[in-house]
Amino acid sequence: MKGSVTSRESKAVSFIKIPKRWEIPERSATPESVYMNRRDILRKLGFSALGVAGVYAFLECPGKRTGLPSAVFADEFELAKFIPKSPTNGLYPAKRNLSYKLDRPLTNELMAACYNNFYEFNLNKDVWRSIERFQTRPWQIEVSGEIDNPRVFDIDDLIRKFPLEERLYLHRCVEAWSMAVPWAGFPLKLLISFVKPNTAARYVRMISFLKPEQASEQKRATWYPWPYFEALTIKEATNELAFLVTGIYGHELTKQHGAPLRLAVPWKYGYKSIKSIVKIEFTRKQPPTFWNSLQPSEYSFESNVNPEIPHPRWSQARETVIDTGEKRPTLKYNGYGEYVAGLYS
Prior knowledge:
There is one protein chain. The chain has 345 residues and is of the alpha+beta class. 19% of the residues lie in helices and 19% in strands. The protein has a single domain (79-344), classed as Oxidoreductase, molybdopterin-binding domain (Sulfite Oxidase, Chain A, domain 2, Alpha-Beta Complex), CATH 3.90.420.10. It is built from 11 helices and 12 strands. The chain is globular, with a radius of gyration of 19 Å.
């Protein structure tokens, strides 16, 4: 049925026990030898003396939600292992769209690759330790629902179908940390125009993969209603900022960032930017979303960045830049109000 929602996704699951974000297994603690050598490793990553000092001080409270990852100090990290080898590698770097500017420098690429939320693989930030066997080819994206032109795209055909561009976007996590990222991809509204939604389409529902044999937490963390699912209104999805991402830092999108296809909606908290999409469905009724289904009092359907609305367990008034430790005031709509405020008047 068009626009349907499975009973599994619609169940009220707020009664189940969800591990606290600060509860980590002993195996995830930073080894002492790595911890003691953290200053030298940070300098090798290219941080300034001020940046090293800031990150060092920032690291001293490992239990804090805003603490930096032990992953950054691991000398075995090799970025190239996480860039999929695909027929579309040669399309990057894409030409930069200069319409979108940042109020800060880009985040150090290695830090951005080490500090991720991707609960399918790892409940800590060092997702890269758990993601190497994840396979992003072959990969298909089904587009269906209230549209005139339903399709199933091979990912490489989809990447070639629309002109790629690079955009510099801010990324703000609900956990009060942020980064600045050079995404490559194409506007979601190009795909929407191609599939031709009918007048009944009011929402765009997106679903991620289900591969428990490759994603260990999909097998272990059974309290989560896998696969991950998110949604936007049709007006949000056709806003010029809504971006389907296929690349990052001048190359193919890395696995921990949501290869081979993810969403970027920079005026919303990061969990709205669903990773590793396999299905896009246009619906009449508002569909459920993953975190709103689990904790509706903490995560709304809308989830716009707003410093005036605290999370029930922490303030959203300030944020921490992950590679410098700088504390910055949070901007409403993450600073993108000129593009999106009209959607919510």
